[in-house]
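Batch 3, record 17
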Amino acid sequence: MSDVRKAKHGGLLTAVFSVVSLFYVMPIIIVLYNSFKKKIFISNRPFSLPDAKSFVGLENYISGIEKIELPKAFGYSLFITVCSVFVIILCTSMCAWYITRVKNKFTSGMYMLFAFSMIVPFQMVMFTLSKIADMLHLGNPVGIIIVYLGFGAGLAVFMFCGFVKSIPLEIEEAAMIDGCTPIQTYFKIVFPVMKPTAISVAILEAMWVWNDYLLPYLVLDIKKYKTIPIAIQYLKGGYGAIDMGAMMAMIVIAIIPIIIFYISCQKYIIEGVVAGAVKG
Amino acid sequence: MEKAIKRYFPIFALPTLAAFTIGFILPFLLGVYLSFCEFTTVTDSKFVGFKNYIRIWGDSTFTHSLWYTALFTIVSVLFINIIAFAVAMLLTKGIKGTNVFRTVFFMPNLIGGIILGYIWQLILNGLLANLERTLTYNSAYGFWGLVILMCWQQVGYMMIIYIAGIQNIPGDLIEAAKIDGANNRQLLRHVTLPMVMPSITICSFLTLTNSFKLFDQNLALTAGEPSNKSEMLALNIFNTFYGRNGWEGVGQAKAVIFFILVAVIAIVQLRATRDKEVQA
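Prediction for the assembled complex:
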């Protein structure tokens, strides 16, 4: 930070922001301590801390896990997110390199289609996509990876293309003259250079896949496979009757790992978001 | 070199292209076609021309959700961007704890829409209990509840992008303006704002499309209660598809209109703000 922009009232601003930050994390803290309270006290007095009368220990956690098997949902979410992001990064970066380096009508048409797909809302394709996925038997945690590759390709290809255009052609040509096949050239020269973009794409796609509700809800066989958002929504039951105790406990289990993950890699996440926004 | 790469089409481009066809191109084309059909599954469709599109306008829930969504989008875009920009200005003054505040404000972005919805349902119902009301008492409560939720979630993300934009302003530009006698207000109006215009383009694009396409948060917070009055477009389309027999075609026609609206809004917005961008 340059000295030009040093604040005059730095101390005061720090104090104000500290209070605001405290309010900002309040919702999560409230959910955390409510998860240890008896159901009735959660909806009646959500802001009061648990006391001798309302404290129930881990009862909400036990009943919540019995109801929706959250650890299993966690496993599915993790598997789907990690595999989808890996496949998206690998396939779309290769595809982006191909359509940038091979110039013809077909590849530029593809590029246009990928860019176009980014503004199409999911509701436009949700019904037909779920039927097609059903016909092709993609309604399982492995099959859905293909659906994510297809629907997530637009943004990823677009971002990788933006980066490939800035890589000087000479390096690749030199590698190929030295006898590298395109595959060797790609994995030894091009992909390592693309790493920062790959991290950006990975973060944006991971945030999307991990939190996505509607696509897995429609594509997966949800009797067998529930991801975390589906499991949480499932707690609501038929006619709006929510077991708030179980809900609070399951929310805590669902978000604690994310917050730990975020705090440990926040530098990459924030940089990835900025880079992604500037290129997108 | 181009020829050598071209032969590797099946390895580089085919996987992504195949998945993109399954996950996007086919569902999209089939979706457009089905919007002119009556059907319950993809295989029993019967062509009916514009009938579905005409039936939409007899459905008062659609027109209501259209206005509700439009109003929500305007309000949330303004709130999120103004707050995010103001916070970004204050956090680039080099005060103590900047990194901690940035980390805190960004955090809600990693929590999924469904979970966010239930967290805020607890908090807002707790607050409204003082008035002996709930979120679903009136669609205005659902509206402002969603605005608060969206601000909480998105301000951090947009703030990060604005901070990057503000830090990219060359220091000598600001110094030169100061030497020329510009006060803080003139500095903001004639230097900072024009220079962060690219960030404004991105942030308004993201908030506009996010708000307009909002689904998960809407579903979890109020699920459209009371009686579809707080239902946004995406949820309305979903309910038309999966909540009413014989309305699948109308649902698909609504989805096509929804897609056209999103595309038009995105293009108009990008044109409007891109025009105002300047070079240093």
